[in-house]
Amino acid sequence: MAGETCLIGIRKSTGSRTNCDQYHFLHCVHTVAALAEPVTLSSEAVPAMQRAVGVGRLSVKQRDGRTRINRLYQEGCAKIRIPKTYHGTALEAVLINSSGGVTGGDHMNWSFEAGQDTHLMLTTQASEKIYKSSGGVAANTVTLKAERAARLAWLPQETIVFNRAGFARTIIADLADDAEALFLEPVILGRRSMGEHVLSADLRDTWRISQGGKLIHAEDFRLSGDIASILSQRAVTGGLTAFATLLFVSPRADGFLSEARQLIGKNGGVSCWNGKLLARVMAEDSFQLRKILLPLVALMNFEAELPKVWSL
């Protein structure tokens, strides 16, 4: 029997009502002469998997001898919280990824600016987790700027990488001639206490640090493929799965070299030249890594206490 289709997609006979109120079509009654035909979706109509996208921006300025918020913007799963602190003049900002971790296709974009004579300390609420990817890599882009006489500390907690994860991080920093900055990025390949092992993954880390308009530090790190075999080599980590990079840019950097070497001992190395101190640290797990990093960061964190969330 010939028929026509109403607004709700049910085939009806020509003998039924032909006028359907578009504002009340969900409540209309039709006389159907035949069973409704099943609705099938084409492959093109199947929606793509939802991905996490977050954008967070913060700029600070100096007022009445303290660092204050100038502008704050957050979008998607990126959140920024400013806890009340009672030590020094630093403004402490805690970054949150409300999606609970990232996987292939997710993208976090953070941007921070420390104005003239300010002190900005940035950290994360918890360790960022990079889960197994079903395709593509998770991306994290961090853009930092420090103006004249500013002090900037980028101190996120550990990045935990799971087996078969894909992750690309980019850190771009622009520092004024007399600005000082401390950068830290710890990485954990599987949590040993949970029995996790990372056999393969794709990890990329790109840093570009400029001061006074000149590039002063650049590195491109990539670890991919059979990670377990690569890390087992003595020239890499000798099988250790927790490591960190610390960079301190300051005219005072050489004054911390001797004590930094004592703190790290045989668990890595430290070099200092041209106003920057670079340290590589390795350990068996996150607990042992933190035992080294906590006093090391406290040594160079501009006389400020460590972020509160590091001790929670």
Beta strand %: 35-45%
Mean pLDDT: 86
Secondary-structure class: mainly beta
How many domain units?
Answer: 2
Number of strands: 19
Radius of gyration: 27 Å
Helix content: under 10%
Q: Quick one: biggest sheet?
A: 10 strands, mixed
- The count of helical stretches stands at 3
The ordered H/E elements are EEEEEEEEEEEEEEEEHEHEEH
Uncertain spans: 1-43
From the spread of the alpha carbons, the general shape counts as: globular
Gap from first CA to last CA: 71 Å
Q: What are the defining features of this structure?
A:
312 residues; mainly beta; 2 domains; 3 helices; disordered N terminus
Would you summarize the structure shown here?
The protein is mainly beta and about 300 residues long. It is about 10% helix and about 45% strand. The chain has two domains: about 45 residues, no CATH class; about 260 residues, no CATH class.
